[in-house]
Amino acid sequence: MPEQNNRYGRLASQVYHLDKPIGHSFGDVEFYLERLQHCPGPILEPAAGNGRILIPLLQAGLDVHGFDASAEMLALCQSECALRGLAAPVSCQTFEHFHYEQSFAAIVIPAGSFQLITDYDAASAVLTRCFQHLQTRGRLILDLDPAHAIQAGGHSLRAWQPAPRQQLTLTCDRLSTDHINQVSVDLLRYEAWDDGVLQATELESFSLRWWGVREMLAALRAAGFSDITVSGGYAHGRWPTDADAIITFEAIKR
């Protein structure tokens, strides 16, 4: 297994940016814009990546800050902000150690990024860190991919064409599924091709932890949150069903 886990290196970041460009929505961009439209203070997006959601929030006039552990992803975010004449209030930090002197009116973790934290105790500590960085009556909003979506492993091959005669490919194979600790591990092989000749290869392991709905409710309450709303499929307030591709939790710091 490669040493880098959930690394998002150079080729991985290029593929992510091609596959999920700025503003590309799974329903989440519109959902977060609606939920945050009256937010009274600054917003933090951990794992902001290339700015797919952060930039539309900035364009809507919201005061948004972000961080990511991948310098390559942050460079894409900063470049896209510069193209739009936006300040890029982003920094290189991790879930486990992020720190700000200011507090936030909202912290948002879209698209299942929270599930990149695969250790239960570490994830619980991150929820506490989020609680500590929120203002009184501040909100944490986070998305989870449902368990069945993560448990389903297998083989896949995808390709993108960034320029004529150039191709980026991603091969994904399941390495392991730990049903006790609720963690899946995939091996990702990124390859860059030019006119049919292989130019570069990157290997990364990609790990995700799945959560039960009531398990996450208990973890949020243990971190100090209350007034928790659970929503399925970006329909705010509708309890999720097995058919939903995403589950969202919105929790308040009293």
TrEMBL record:
Segments forming domain Methyltransferase: 43-138
Annotated InterPro entries: Methyltransf_25, SAM-dependent_MTases_sf
Pfam families with a match to the protein in the record: Methyltransf_25
Keyword vocabulary terms for this entry: Methyltransferase, Transferase
GO molecular function: methyltransferase activity
UniProt GO BP: methylation
Record's protein name: Methyltransferase family protein
Originating species: Kerstersia gyiorum
